[in-house]
């Protein structure tokens, strides 16, 4: 099963500011769940003058309780208690043409729900972004259009290639070796017996869509905070406020030392 969610809105800031704020958006007061951001790859293509970036975000995240209730106990192993998940982000920026495309996807629990979010950031088009004489009026309207398209795919209950191979291995080589089961002996019904696979998938996808709507609102609020800092104090203020946000969330030592102390059983200094 597949579900789609689309939305469009605009930032009241020009494209250069919005594209810069995108890469500086963590941490912010609306993204306290983001633990770290690492650049995996970044390169500039001199032929088309586009910047390509791949980043990995570590976020504090768990499957919603409503989803966990639908799943058999133990299906997630220890991952359900880790409280952390990785998000892969890829982006392409063309400053000359004034557009940026991004794609983010979850790397955890993909067998239960895969979420792929694609966004396009665009400075005003010719129809609404140019004066009558053909010159840019971006400085006057100072907006950036954003379109978001999110795809939700749940494959829960579907057997993959390993399952197919396993079934083939345990299947009888011929009908002569098969074991007959009496008609009055019926297999035990599983936890999911009252649910069809498609019903479970639709329910999981609907829950994911509801959470995505809420996350998009917070994401926009967080971007506006960073954009406001850029406008009032430039890059210096953004970096200083990022430091303050990080200390407010994790203390002056940062999230990693706190995690190390907890693993060693060391209490934080009072």
Descriptors for this entry?
single chain, 270 residues, alpha+beta, 7-stranded antiparallel sheet, 8 helices, 7 strands, 26% strand
Brief synopsis:
By secondary structure, this protein is of the alpha+beta class. The protein is built from 8 helices and 7 strands, in the order E-H-E-E-H-H-E-E-E-H-H-E-H-H-H.
Describe the overall structure:
There is one protein chain. This protein is α+β, with helices and mostly antiparallel strands. 37% of the residues lie in helices and 26% in strands. It contains eight helices and seven strands; from the N terminus they run βαββααβββααβααα. A hairpin with a 4-residue loop joins strand 2 and strand 3 (50-60). Residues 129-135 and 163-194 have low confidence and may be disordered.
Name the average pLDDT. 77
Spatial shape: globular
Class from helix and strand fractions: alpha+beta
| Order of neighbouring strands in the sheet with most strands | 1-7-6-5-4-3-2
Radius of gyration: 24 Å
For this structure, the quaternary state is single chain
Biggest sheet character: 7 strands, antiparallel
Tally of individual helices: 8
List the helices and strands and how they pair.
Elements: E1 2-11, H1 15-23, E2 34-45, E3 50-60, H2 65-68, H3 79-82, E4 84-94, E5 99-106, E6 114-122, H4 126-129, H5 138-141, E7 144-153, H6 161-170, H7 197-250, H8 254-264
């Amino acid at each position: 099963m597949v579900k789609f969610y689309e939305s469009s809105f605009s930032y009241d800031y020009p494209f250069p500011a919005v594209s810069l704020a995108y890469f500086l958006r963590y941490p912010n007061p609306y993204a306290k769940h983001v633990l770290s951001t690492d650049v995996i790859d970044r390169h500039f293509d001199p032929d088309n003058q586009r910047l390509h970036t791949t980043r990995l975000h570590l976020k504090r995240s768990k499957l919603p309780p409503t989803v966990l209730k639908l799943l058999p106990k133990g299906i997630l192993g220890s991952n359900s208690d880790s409280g952390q998940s990785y998000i892969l982000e890829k982006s392409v920026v063309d400053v000359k043409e004034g557009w940026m495309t991004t794609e983010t996807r979850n790397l955890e629990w993909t067998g239960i729900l895969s979420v792929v979010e694609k966004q396009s950031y665009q400075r005003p088009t010719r129809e609404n972004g140019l004066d009558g004489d053909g010159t840019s009026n971006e400085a006057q309207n100072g907006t950036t259009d954003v379109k978001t398209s999110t795809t939700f795919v749940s494959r829960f209950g579907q057997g993959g290639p390993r399952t197919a191979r396993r079934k083939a291995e345990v299947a009888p080589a011929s009908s002569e070796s098969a074991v007959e089961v009496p008609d009055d002996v019926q297999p035990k019904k599983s936890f999911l017996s009252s649910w069809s696979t498609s019903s479970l998938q639709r329910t999981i996808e609907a829950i994911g869509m509801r959470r995505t709507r809420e996350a998009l609102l917070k994401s926009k609020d967080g971007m506006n905070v960073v954009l406001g800092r850029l406008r009032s104090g430039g890059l210096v203020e953004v970096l200083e406020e990022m430091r303050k946000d990080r200390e407010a969330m994790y203390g002056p030592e940062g999230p990693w030392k706190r995690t190390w102390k907890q693993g060693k059983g060391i209490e934080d200094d009072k």
